[in-house]
Amino acid sequence: MVVATEINPSRIEKIREVEIPVIDLSLKKSKAAKLIVKACEDYGFFKVINHGVPHHIIKKMEDEGFDFFHKPLPDKIRVGSANPFGYGSKNIGLSGDKGELEYLILQTNQDSILNTSKFSYSCCGCDRCAVSCYVECVRELACKILELIAKGLGVPRSFFSHLVRRFDSDSLLRLNHYPPVSDTSHSFQRGSSNSNIGFGEHSDPQILTLLRSNGVAGLQISLGNGNWAPVAPDPHAFCVNIGDVLQAMTNGRFVSVRHRAMANTLPDRSRLSLVFFGAPPPQAIITCPPQLLKQNEPRYRAFTWAEYKSHTYAHRLGETRLDHFKIA
Ligand SMILES: C=C1C[C@]23C[C@@]1(O)CC[C@H]2[C@@]12CC[C@H](O)[C@@](C)(C(=O)O1)[C@H]2[C@@H]3C(=O)O
Ligand SMILES: O=C(O)CCC(=O)C(=O)O
Ligand SMILES: [Fe+2]
């Protein structure tokens, strides 16, 4: 089915209903690995069910998120601006991108929280245990999926996952809050842009993203050529998407899917997404292993995650950052 939706008067985009792959992680490993590799090649996106993250840990994290966003604005601003860790509202990044949301970005690695950052869980008033328990579970889930990917691709088991498991991994947790359309009591002030984009089109720069949202719709993935597929909300599943680094490490065999979130149009319910970005340590060298190159020439030059990240942060949300690292 194709439905035309008006994003802005000069540009008609098509919304297509596609079957998003749903992978049951209780399947035999070899079967799950095969299905995941296929989903990564076809869409760079899939959902997982029977993922093993306990419901009470998700619920506690979600409650903490709602509590934070329902605080008065001065309390939220007090945690510091999302530069790169802290609270942000409507402005995404430092290059002028805007969204109809507010968010909180948290570092996940205890080592850097203690040593290099002014920002830690306690600053946002979130319960330290709720955040650490959630992060521990989703990190483990990300590693499990990366190990299935390694199995499916025929590379050593921890080839990708060790980067996310490392004590100095640069993984992040991001909480996005899309307030209800008519909520005037809320401390978040909706912009005057009339845009129905909540979080603009982009790819995630890291290795793998695990997104979980409450039952409110909004996420869409790009099918290319201006076609978008809505992702039905499912509080029991995690959405998984390939990041730019995994695209580079697979020499483009997997796609870092472009996605966006629509602004919340419900009058009475907020949308909350909890997003874990599994990232390498800053000095890790990102390159495609010879087993995956086969007879092909490498498409991207080797780079460190620190180099990629500084390139990312110097550019706008919607840019195709990996192009800069392409071998001509
Ligand atoms: C405009 C920007 C925000 C962003 C950094 C960037 O310069 C380009 C990528 C953006 C993004 C998208 C995925 C994640 O939400 C994020 C935390 C990331 O790593 O890259 C954001 C960055 C951000 O909001 O700070
Ligand atoms: O909230 C969503 O559904 C998408 C958020 C997202 O893409 C991000 O935080 O990078
Ligand atoms: Fe994203």
Question: Could you give a short description of this structure?
Answer:
The chain has 328 residues and is of the alpha+beta class.
Tell me what the structure shows:
The protein is built from 9 helices and 16 strands. The chain has a single domain (51-325), classed as B-lactam Antibiotic, Isopenicillin N Synthase, Chain (Jelly Rolls, Sandwich). The chain is of the alpha+beta class and 328 residues long. A hairpin with a 2-residue loop joins strand 1 and strand 2. 27% of the residues lie in helices and 27% in strands. The chain starts with a strand and ends in a 15-residue tail after the last helix. The chain has helices at residues 29-42, 55-69, 73-77, 110-115, 128-153, 161-165, 244-249, 290-293, 305-313, and strands at 2-8, 11-16, 22-24, 45-49, 86-92, 97-107, 172-178, 197-202, 208-213, 219-224, 227-230, 238-242, 259-262, 271-278, 285-286, 303-304. Helix 1 packs across helix 5 (128-153) and helix 2 packs across helix 5. The structure holds the ligand C=C1C[C@]23C[C@@]1(O)CC[C@H]2[C@@]12CC[C@H](O)[C@@](C)(C(=O)O1)[C@H]2[C@@H]3C(=O)O, 2-oxoglutaric acid and fe (ii) ion. Fe (ii) ion is lined by residues 202, 204, 259. The ligand C=C1C[C@]23C[C@@]1(O)CC[C@H]2[C@@]12CC[C@H](O)[C@@](C)(C(=O)O1)[C@H]2[C@@H]3C(=O)O binds at residues 82, 84, 92-93, 95, 97, 105, 172, 174, 202, 204-205, 277, 312-313, 315-317.
